[in-house]
Backbone:
């Protein structure tokens, strides 16, 4: 690159940096009122990535892939996460008498003056106690110990656009409060087990896994491939390297994973971030459960095929103005479903649920609107236009209620504030499964109509 363009790039980056320092809060949308949404075609009409068929018996049509920028020429608005060093510690629990209550990625230390063990935890959880059991050893045997929490949340700094999809009606977001998530696992985590699952009594095969919270970014590699900062704020799960430049190849071959099994599942999952409109802070999700099941909508378990490598899809509609058939909200303690975010009690969890289509057209890994290549079953199986039955993916993402009436102030980053909270619920999925692992649980769990509970592969192995 010649000196002049490099100088211009530097000045442009400096301008963005100064604007970010001045701006305290920014909307989680972008691209203006005419920009494409998660339920419509991207402005360029180009799909991200491609990939070969993975066990479906059908060769999909290769899709165009965005070219990432050259090293050193990354756009200034690309997400950059920076850990924050704790400056003070606050007592939060005596040893054995309860546990610390904390949200987000925190450093917790256990011990006494001068003798500490320090660990990072993402959200406190029921049963968490200040004890050697949670820290692995006793730093001061025979002495009275306590737990202390870092006085700040570990956060990331992300430059963001200052424009909303819905004409300036999106939730404001404190950019300094973007939470960091897990670093994930860099290894394949599979081990033997004697548990082979339970034969299903209703003909439904089921495989379940948990993929922890990975990171947040104003990126969407399906709707805005190669365009960082163009989407509303998303919470990502699974592949820790997922960003605007992700393709089928980069997801399958790189990045750690927050999923059980580690890099056995490098798929990327993302949903619009949930925002507290009082503090403007994103609410950190916890315990997201992902279901891959069969035997619904007239689709027989034995007819289900493996997802083709590189498949991507979107479920739900961010432009919805009412209840959606495939997405809803609930309190985890109750079976009742709602179209909007419910005011669950303290200690309960608000649950976001989204069900993906399971009938594939057998040709395309993506489509112009990111939905047409997939369809939902009709009740008597898959429609003729989409004849290849795949596992049905359903996600349940949980948000712990820590204070009374807190959910009354919660909004999705994609919500139009002129509409009730949560109408815009939707989710994205981009395949990154290890083909051998994927084919194993599909064969021994889904196709065999076996309930493999959580993590079981059905062949004498389990993810962990």
Residues:
């Amino acid at each position: 690159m010649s000196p002049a363009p490099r100088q211009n790039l530097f000045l442009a980056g400096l301008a963005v940096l100064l604007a970010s320092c001045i701006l305290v809060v920014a909307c989680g949308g972008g691209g203006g009122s005419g920009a494409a949404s998660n339920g419509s075609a991207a402005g360029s009409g180009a799909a991200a990535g491609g990939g070969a068929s993975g066990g479906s018996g059908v060769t999909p049509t290769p899709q165009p892939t965005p070219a990432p920028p050259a090293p050193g020429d990354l756009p200034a608005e690309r997400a950059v996460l920076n850990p924050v060093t704790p400056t003070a510690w606050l007592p939060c629990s005596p040893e054995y008498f309860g546990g610390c209550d904390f949200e987000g990625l925190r450093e917790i230390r256990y011990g006494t003056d001068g003798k500490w063990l320090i660990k990072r935890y993402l959200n406190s959880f029921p049963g968490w106690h200040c004890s050697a059991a949670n820290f692995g050893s006793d730093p001061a045997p025979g002495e009275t110990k306590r737990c202390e929490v870092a006085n700040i949340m570990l956060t990331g700094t992300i430059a963001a656009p200052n424009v909303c999809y819905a004409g300036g009606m999106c939730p404001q977001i404190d950019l300094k409060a973007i939470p960091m998530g897990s670093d994930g696992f860099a290894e394949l985590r599979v081990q033997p087990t004697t548990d082979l699952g339970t034969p299903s009594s209703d003909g439904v095969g089921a495989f379940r896994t948990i993929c922890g919270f990975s990171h947040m970014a104003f990126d969407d590699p399906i709707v805005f491939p190669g365009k960082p900062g163009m989407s509303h704020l998303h919470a990502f799960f699974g592949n820790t390297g997922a960003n605007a430049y992700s393709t089928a190849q980069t997801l399958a071959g790189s990045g750690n994973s927050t999923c059980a099994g580690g890099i056995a599942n490098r798929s990327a999952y993302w949903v619009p971030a949930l925002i507290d409109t009082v503090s403007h802070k994103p609410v950190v999700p916890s315990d997201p459960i992902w279901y891959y099941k069969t035997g619904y909508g007239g689709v027989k378990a034995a007819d289900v095929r493996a997802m083709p490598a590189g498949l991507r899809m979107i479920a739900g509609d961010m432009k919805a103005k009412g209840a959606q058939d495939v997405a809803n909200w609930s309190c985890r303690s109750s079976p009742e479903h709602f179209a909007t975010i419910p005011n669950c009690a303290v200690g309960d969890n608000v649950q976001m649920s989204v069900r993906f289509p399971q009938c594939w057209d057998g040709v395309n890994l993506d489509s112009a609107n990111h939905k047409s290549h997939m369809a939902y079953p009709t009740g008597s199986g898959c429609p003729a236009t989409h004849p290849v039955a795949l596992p049905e993916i359903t996600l349940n993402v949980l948000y712990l209620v820590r204070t009374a009436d807190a959910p009354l102030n919660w909004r999705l980053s994609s919500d139009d504030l002129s509409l009730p909270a949560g109408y815009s619920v939707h989710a994205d999925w981009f395949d990154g499964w290890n083909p051998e692992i994927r084919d194993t649980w599909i064969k021994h769990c889904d196709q065999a109509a076996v309930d493999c509970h959580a993590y079981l592969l059905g062949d004498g192995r389990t993810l962990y």
User: Anything to note?
Assistant: The longest strand covers residues 392-400.
